[in-house]
């Protein structure tokens, strides 16, 4: 186990940082001061999924699925069977009376699906020779069925038996699936969201029917999430954030997030080119039911569900695109990026002598149905009442490649995965020090003192 004193990094985009902090200086609000490097993969690690309070599974381009103990960092199981990269992974928990068991479902570019027992490492079921690769998975545990999405939408039972399927009409295939009320499913396909309804007949046979096609996005949908029981949200490559009613599938709010260049830029007046796609693309969305956190290019954007307004933003939160985010509370959040860092943020009030707001401009937004016309008037962040900023409180630097995602195990730590083929287990240094002291005193007591 390594112990680091973590601070900021110098010479990085407009985020204010300081060198590694010395004893006696004010420390950042970052408890993750110990790390443990977990090795076992041989290629990019893209996925992390939590199995229970103490275990997670990792998967990536080497086709391996590894099961880890997040308390000790021990590799518990190595699941081998796929010959190409893993494209999706999820858990499947089935209950039998008083007992329940969690399995893993994986999809791969080798056009196969597998069901694994993470306790033993055995592959319980497998389906091969699919027509195409599966890009996403969705489990409906209350019905003991699960969906796979790719060139077609398939419904499977717990025994991996195909119940029904629907061919989609998009060249890109289904890239994301979420569950909606009344046995409905939302599937993202290129610029559209298709709503399906699952019907269970009296003889327990299943069928799936197309209900509606939502075609309000102007560009490819990059993120699709449930917000709460009555809402879901989608984000596009063009920076469009749409809040939908989960019952009748109507638009409740529409935001167009468009970072603008600083007005202090010498060439701002003659700049004619549109923003780079990476500057406005929504790569990831996360929510706690009250706020939506959007990863927009290399920036972060916090949107309030209640007020349908922006509450905080940071145009340049990382040096490269943000890949994954998480809301820790109503005021704290976390992000990871292609730049190899994981950063912790706090929503704070803007000081009276704040840095110029121009680097944080976002452009046009409207509520209701999106305006298809071009050239809408822009609005500045400084015109929005009660706007706040995101201040850096911790910078976790350990990976040498892009951090793909992370999973929080609360007091047991944080797990990150990266293109450098590694996982890192981050621990609360103060808590670990206390635990070691307690273990030492217990050992001394057992041995009758020194």
From TrEMBL:
InterPro entries: WD40/YVTN_repeat-like_dom_sf (IPR015943), WD40_PAC1 (IPR020472), WD40_repeat_CS (IPR019775), WD40_repeat_dom_sf (IPR036322), WD40_rpt (IPR001680), WDR41 (IPR040102). The keyword Repeat applies. WD repeats lie at residues 57-78, 104-126. One of its GO terms (cellular component) is lysosomal membrane. One of its GO terms (biological process) is regulation of autophagy. Gene3D superfamilies: YVTN repeat-like/Quinoprotein amine dehydrogenase. Keywords: Repeat, WD repeat. PROSITE patterns: WD_REPEATS_1, WD_REPEATS_2. This is Putative WD repeat-containing protein 41 isoform 3. It comes from Scophthalmus maximus.
């Amino acid at each position: 186990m390594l112990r680091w004193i973590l601070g900021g990094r110098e010479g990085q985009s407009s985020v204010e940082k300081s060198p590694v902090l010395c004893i006696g200086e004010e420390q950042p609000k970052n408890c993750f001061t110990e790390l443990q490097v977990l090795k076992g993969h041989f290629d990019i690690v893209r996925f992390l999924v939590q199995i229970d309070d103490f275990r997670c599974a990792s998967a990536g381009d080497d086709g391996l699925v590894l099961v880890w103990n997040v308390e000790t960092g021990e590799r518990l199981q190595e699941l081998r069977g796929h010959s190409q990269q893993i494209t999706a992974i999820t858990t499947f928990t089935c209950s039998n009376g008083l007992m329940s068991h969690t399995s893993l479902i994986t999809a791969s570019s080798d056009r196969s699906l597998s069901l694994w027992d993470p306790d033993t490492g055995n592959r319980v079921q497998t389906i091969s020779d699919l027509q195409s690769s599966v890009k996403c998975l969705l489990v409906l545990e209350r019905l003991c069925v699960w969906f796979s999405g790719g060139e077609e939408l398939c419904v499977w039972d717990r025994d991996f038996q195909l119940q029904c399927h629907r061919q989609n009409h998009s060249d890109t295939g289904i890239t994301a699936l979420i569950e909606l009320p009344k046995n409905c499913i939302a599937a993202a396909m290129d610029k559209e969201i298709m709503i399906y309804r699952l019907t269970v007949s009296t003889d327990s046979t299943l069928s799936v029917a197309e209900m509606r096609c939502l075609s309000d996005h102007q560009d490819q949908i990059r993120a699709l999430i449930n917000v709460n029981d009555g809402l879901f949200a989608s984000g596009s490559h063009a920076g469009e954030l749409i809040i939908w009613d989960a019952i009748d599938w109507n638009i409740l709010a529409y935001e167009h997030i468009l970072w603008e260049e600083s007005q202090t830029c010498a060439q701002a007046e003659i700049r004619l080119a549109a923003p780079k796609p990476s500057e406005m693309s929504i790569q990831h969305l996360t929510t706690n039911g009250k706020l939506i956190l959007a990863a927009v290019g290399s920036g972060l954007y916090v949107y309030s569900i209640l007020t349908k307004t922006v509450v905080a933003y940071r145009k340049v939160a990382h040096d490269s695109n943000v890949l994954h985010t998480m809301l820790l509370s109503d005021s704290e959040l976390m992000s990871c990026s292609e730049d190899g860092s994981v950063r912790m943020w706090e929503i704070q009030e803007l000081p009276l002598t704040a840095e110029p707001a121009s680097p944080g401009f976002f452009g046009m937004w409207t509520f209701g149905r999106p305006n298809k016309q071009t050239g809408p008037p822009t609005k500045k962040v400084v015109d929005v009442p009660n706007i706040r900023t995101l201040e850096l409180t911790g910078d976790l630097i350990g990976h040498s490649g892009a951090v793909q995602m992370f999973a929080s195990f609360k007091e047991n730590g944080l797990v990150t995965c990266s293109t450098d083929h590694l996982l890192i287990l981050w621990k609360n240094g103060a808590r670990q020090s206390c635990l070691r002291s307690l273990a030492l005193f217990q050992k001394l007591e057992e041995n009758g003192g020194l």
